[in-house]
Amino acid sequence: MSEPVASALPYSFEVLMRYRLIEIIALWEGRLTTNHLCQSFQIKRQQASKDINKYNQDIAPGNLVLDRKLKGYRPSSTFKPVFTRGIAEEYLLALASNRDISHNFSTLDLGFHQTEMLHSPMRHVDPQILRALVQAARTGEKIDMGYVSMTSPDEESRIITPHSLVCTPLRWHVRAYCEKNRDYRDFVLSRFRSINDTGGPSANLKDQDSRWNTEVSIVLRPDPRLTDYQRAIVEHDYGMVDGAHTVRTRSALVPYVIQQLNLDLSKLEIKPEAQQIVVDNLEEVKKHAF
């Protein structure tokens, strides 16, 4: 499906988010009311009605149909997304986002009552340390941090040049050049303990991180030990084309992608039903999985 064209339209971020929600709710729940906008953005009903009318009359004429039986709007038979791509992931991410906000602000009622979201334990990250890392990444400067690891009994000084924050399913880390190792490494945010000093401009920036700038394709296929019927199920699960699905990522992130897929590149599960997928270009991917 083609990309949404809204990126070329002159809307503020908040207005853009309201139009996106209009499309997501209408398309996937089949009934849009002003309450969806009022509850999600804390705006008045008059503004919500104005947003829906503006969307349906000027931006995407005919996308919505007023259905008096539903007491709301439903998508027309010719509905064509403008601010979204019309894919299921957009709706599921909206569910997760709204449930997360409701979890932290219990007085808000954002709808989506048919959803439950599991939360992983949050790792503690010191706000001052995070701010220092983000600012150093923005300015391209070295920073001397106190860091602890599972292999060292004491906190040690690490002079690093951070360039990117990375979120994995279980934790956040920062990608940075490490003066001690003379290489780019990943540092877990929750294991920084102190800010010792700033070290001025660095020559080791994101552009010099070869693994960060190298794209890797991970080709997934159903486990060949599955039956034809089982393989067909897996192919549908992952949206495979011709029996394969390609995940594109950075070389530096390959280990985290493999972990997220719950795969072990060194062995196969005894039961193919437990693993379900395998890496087709295994030897190539192994070169980056360290």
Question: What does this entry look like structurally?
Answer:
Helix 1 crosses helix 4 and helix 2 (34-41) packs across helix 3. It contains 9 helices and 10 strands. The protein is globular and about 70 Å long. The longest helix has 17 residues, at 13-29. The strands form 3 sheets. A 5-stranded antiparallel β-sheet has the order 6-5-4-3-7. Strands 9-8-10 form a 3-stranded antiparallel β-sheet. It has 290 residues and is an alpha+beta fold.
Helix fraction bin: 25-40%
Number of helices: 9
Distance between the termini: 35 Å
What is the overall pLDDT average?
Answer: 88
Task: Bin the strand percentage.
Answer: 15-25%
Q: What does the main sheet amount to?
A: 5 strands, antiparallel
Return the structural class: alpha+beta
Question: Shape from CA axes?
Answer: globular
**Which ranges are low-confidence, i.e. pLDDT below 50, for 5 or more consecutive residues?**
102-110
- The secondary-structure element order is HHHEEHHEEEEEEHEHHEH
Rg, alpha carbons: 24 Å
Number of strands: 10
Major β-sheet strand ordering: 6-5-4-3-7
